[in-house]
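Narrative of activities, Objective 1.

The group set out to show that a structural description can be obtained from nothing but a protein's sequence at a throughput compatible with the screening campaign. Below is one input-output pair from the validation batch, recorded exactly as produced.
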Amino acid sequence: MGKLEALDIEFSDNKVVYTPGESISGTVTVKVNQPIQCKAIKVNCNGFCGITSKLNDTAWTTEEQYFNSTISVADKGTLKQGEHPFPFKFLIPATAPTSFEGSYGKIIYRVRAFIDTPRFAKDYSTEKPFYLLSLLNLNELPDIWGPSTSAVTQQFTYMLMKTGTIVLKAQTDMKGYTPGQIIKVSANIHNQSTKTTGHIAASLMQRVTYETKKPTHDLKSMVEVEGGAIKGGRELEWKEQIIIPPLPQSSLAGCELIKIEYYVKVSLKSPDVTLTLPIHIGNVSLDKKLRPSKKETPSFKKDPAASVSTPDAPESSSRLTAPPQPAPKPAPRPAPRSRMSSHSSPSAPPVEYHSGAEGGNLLNDDFPNKRQSQAVSPNAFSYAPGLFFPQNQLPNVSVPAPSGPSSRRSAGATAPYPSAIDARPMAAPLNTLPPDYDTSAYPQEAPPSYESCNT
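Output recorded for this entry:
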């Protein structure tokens, strides 16, 4: 090396991995065996991203600078024979992205030292890289909780003829992982054809996009596991595990030229059926204690009889209870069915019918009114002009009782109706109240009130 015996860069405490916002310090050591004339000794610290369109090429077509600092540790003079240490210190910006090395680009951080000599003399330089790690906390990512799921249905053909359908569903146990953790993959394959499929496989894929005029995509399979085949007409549950190797994190915050994505690819070979399950790889694993709790949704279950109100009913009528005395029997003269009004408007919504419900089974527990309704005898609301109701005794009419959370209780409780409600014969579901006289065509005159009956 001539007059210069050694030119070395050493970091304090032999540290090589730093974080954004941290300071990097060290010493440049110059060892000469003969005196050397120098104009200055400088130390430079820089970080940048360079990408190219050729594989493993260092002639960057596009660059992105993050920081570039230079300090002078020695002025013009003569370096005497021996060893000379020169300390340095730099501050790393808090916005610098994580170090990365790919096939078409790199994010590089380094410290360089220069000995600037007079004209016609040889310059000396050296450099030493260091690595920057910007921690990616998975708990801070949006929509990170819960499994990653996907499903695909695909028809395949053989010799231009349709032979069947494959239904493939898959999921991972989480959406965020760190290196060393295990991805639990589960898949459901339904082979609705007569032919046996190829093997099922799950792969951890890395997709790196280099942003140039024409973006370059580098897709690699990092880990792959394989299962068996599925015979025709069979349905199979397949579970497998993937151990994540040391990999760069998903997000390179602060870098606009390189983007990293990870996903689990679940595929069948013959026919070619594929689905993807996006995941994130970070440095701080998910903490179940930080998982946001699900907000309790208000219950909308209400009893139909309790929520119905009529314009002529007093406010306290809904709180009345049936008297213990039995109701008087109605007059022997039944009202004919032809007198039932066909254009009366009920004061409660009718029961919804569904052709798929059999035997009155509930279609959905959240909606207790969705069942097959049962008709009520017309005599239950028959009107008899000669019928006498004592003042302190109300007719005992069977209506649905408040069922609370359960929707399968029978309607056996009794509750009185106000005197203004028509008591004409009608066949209606249990949760439908008799219509008002305001909207009815028969009878033309209102029935006597309790006071008129007593007089």
